[in-house]
Sequence to fold (378 residues):
Amino acid sequence: MKITDMRVFVVGNPWKNWIFLKLYTDDGITGLGEATGGLSTKPSVGSLEEIRHQLIGEDPRNISRIRDKLYKALFLNSGGNAAAGVDAACWDILAKSLDAPVYALLGGKARDRIRIYANGWYQGPRTPEFFAEAAAGMAARGYTALKFDPFGKNYMYMPPGEERLSIDIVAAVREAVGGDVDILIEGHDRFSISQAVRVGILLEPYNPMWFETPVLNSDAAAINEVARRVRIPVISGERARGASDIAEALRDRAINMVNPEYLGVGGVSGLLECFAVAKAFGAHVAPHNAQSPVSTAVNSHVDIAMQNMLIQECFDDSGVEWMDDVLSGYPKVENGYITPGDAPGFGVELNEEEALRHPYGERNFLRLFEDGWEYRNS
Fold:
């Protein structure tokens, strides 16, 4: 089997342009991957176009070979989202060639279902009343965990009024959902160490499951400093670029949860390495996923097979109304849990015609340090 072509599709999701790639083979089997950038689009598309010639003629089932080839071709660089998307597409093809779901190739199921935490559900005004109502609605749909950023556009420092509003929003959500629903507080790398510690102490009465990346999460020393000085769990790892970054985050043992993004750490192959490193440190993994339902499916196949998986992020129930016209076969959240399907590969199909009806948008970006970003309007 040889790769004969790769096509790239940019789909204009309103707050982040989705980037999909499709590998074609001489056997007629295709593989679908995602290479959506963090908050950029064209750099990832350009990267895919530049590595296309490295893929043509390769057997996509030789995933380790292709991964090593790209790493060396890019002068010992992991290749970012582009290479990660190729890695996932190759796993899709390998599993399809064996007529098996991807999770079966990873050792089978370690659990029957995967607990989900919802994100993207607070698309509206930054008021305690709105957040409480929206949170109650998600809990009524069966979610047992909700993540949100109550901090507006603040960066490094919050004035007293902004601090009070942020904590009032957390208090309102806790009251709305009760004590049996976990709340996860997103910091989005916003704060200095001193501000993060101050906020972490103020969050304690509301018993959050975690305080996520309160300071720049690529700064392991800063993350660990905050974690030591607050009494609520801190999680980090979203900016990791490989398993070595996860090891560095866990080395001082101030945190015991990490949230790598598979598109940042080298695709399915890289995420598996992160799970292994975390297990060596006695830590749990809660994979980051702020992308499309393709990434939901990819994560679900890894999650279901990993013993130290904690919980999975998902935006899908807060997505655009035309999402199911573009993508089919991805696992749906039911009462706060998902289970990957048993179709060969990841089981997801891209409707190429429908994808072309939603082109790239130059304003489709979430600007987290500008007013009104939480509306997620382009």
About this structure: The mean pLDDT is 96.
